[in-house]
Amino acid sequence: MKKSDSYTEIAGIIGGIGPEATNHFTSLLVQLRLQYATKDQDHIPFLLFNNPQIPDRTEYLLKKSDINPISEIIKTGIALKNAGATFLVMPCNTAHAFSQTIEEEVGLPLINMLDETATHVERVYGDKATVGVLATTGTIETQLFEKSFGNISKNITVLTPDAAEQAEVMRAIYDIKSNSVNDGNVQVLYAAANRLMSRGASIIILGCTEIPLALKAEKCKFFRVDTLEVLAQKVLERTLLSKSTNQTIIGSKKELSYRTAR
Question: Which 8-state DSSP code applies to residue 110?
Fold first, then answer.
């Protein structure tokens, strides 16, 4: 694919981790832009390599598998680069454990979804917020969100489920991957969010890209932050800012926080 004459920045999406979450992410790129688009040409170009053959990230991080997902992720990134992508995104929080290696080996910058989420929370909710994180066990054990929030503010508190609760959350995530959303996995995740709220969390981070498929904004009675919404916003901003003609990107009246603060 040749680079668009109108854009100097094109996102390369390392997809398939998981496939349904990738569909959610690409739909967000359209939905967020629809607030301002009046025709097809107002939407952004992007490249997607939907590669569900990337091995399980959590299994590798927890040393339950010796099949390293990094090489397949890098191969996917290089294919996107060769197709014309100028930066990368991954709609998978756990895969960000390998973000530095991916950037170095592919030779493209990667928008870090967790870092952007931490920045968003600090801006919208303040630097003394207490956040509860629902994520894969791989993300929890490697403390990816703690690291990202720690880089933003030492005063933000990060709460995670206890071991028994986390096992239930992980089972629900795998159930969504294999059976899509159902009443059972919705109830498990909603209960886990409520337990974090009872321990003091004022915001719930949907820190695995399968979770927002179940915990939709209209179903939640708590403030939720979907990391994919944060990432989609940054992709739109970066791409549209590179457009050769100036235009409104996303105005302050409909900033992302209106979607996440429910």
Answer: B
